[in-house]
Amino acid sequence: MTKVHLPIFDHDDAFFWQGTAEGKLLIQRCTNCCALRHPPAPMCARCSSFDWDTIESSGRGVIRSWIVSQHPTEPSTEPRIVILVELDEGTRLVSNLHGSPADNVANGLRVEAVFVDFGDIVLPQFRLATDGVER
Ligand SMILES: [Zn+2]
């Protein structure tokens, strides 16, 4: 299995990792202006409020950009497809695409989250969705 470099959990993102451990993709939301933000941060960039809660994302979205990583973390691992996903809720996150060769990847394809257990951590990853192409 691929070795994962663990993130450092802190007050601002502990909810995110707890959510992934439970198979949920949680997104931080400002309770003052309702702006969504990812990665988690202590203050809203729109209204400067420190008050926030979370929403559970559907885990569905669209590929807005992607690359094939030619320098994998470990030499024995396969190159990874790194994607920028715009979730249906409107915020974006960087992740990996599984189960599809790079020849099948394009901006605008719909994806859905899957939760991959690496032992020490569960990471949200994505696969191509079965409900078609948005573009
Ligand atoms: Zn705000």
Short précis:
Helix content is 6%, strand content 42%. It has 135 residues and is mainly β.
Task: Annotate the secondary structure layout.
Blueprint: H1 14-21, E1 26-30, E2 36-37, E3 52-56, E4 60-69, E5 80-87, E6 92-97, E7 109-117, E8 122-133
Antiparallel strand pairs: 1-2, 1-3, 4-5, 4-7, 5-6, 7-8
The protein binds zinc ion.
Would you give an account of this structure?
- The protein has 135 residues and is mainly β.
- Helices cover 6% and strands 42% of the residues.
- The protein has one helix at 14-21, and strands at 26-30, 36-37, 52-56, 60-69, 80-87, 92-97, 109-117, 122-133.
- The strands form two sheets. The chain has a five-stranded antiparallel sheet.
- Strand 5 and strand 6 form a beta hairpin.
- The N and C termini lie far apart (33 Å).
- Zinc ion binds next to loops.
State the end-to-end CA separation. Answer: 33 Å
Largest sheet entry:
5 strands, antiparallel
The class by helix and strand makeup works out as: mainly beta
Strand content: 35-45%
The backbone outline, from C-alpha atoms, is globular
Q: Tell me which ligands are bound.
A: zinc ion
Care to count the β-strands? 8
**CATH level-1 class:** Mainly Beta
Low-confidence stretches: none
Instruction: List SSEs in N-to-C order.
Output: HEEEEEEEE
Number of domains: 1
Provide the residue-averaged pLDDT: 90
Strand order of the largest sheet: 6-5-4-7-8
Count the DSSP helices: 1
The radius of gyration is 15 Å
Helix content: under 10%
CATH architecture: Beta Barrel
CATH-assigned fold name: OB fold (Dihydrolipoamide Acetyltransferase, E2P)
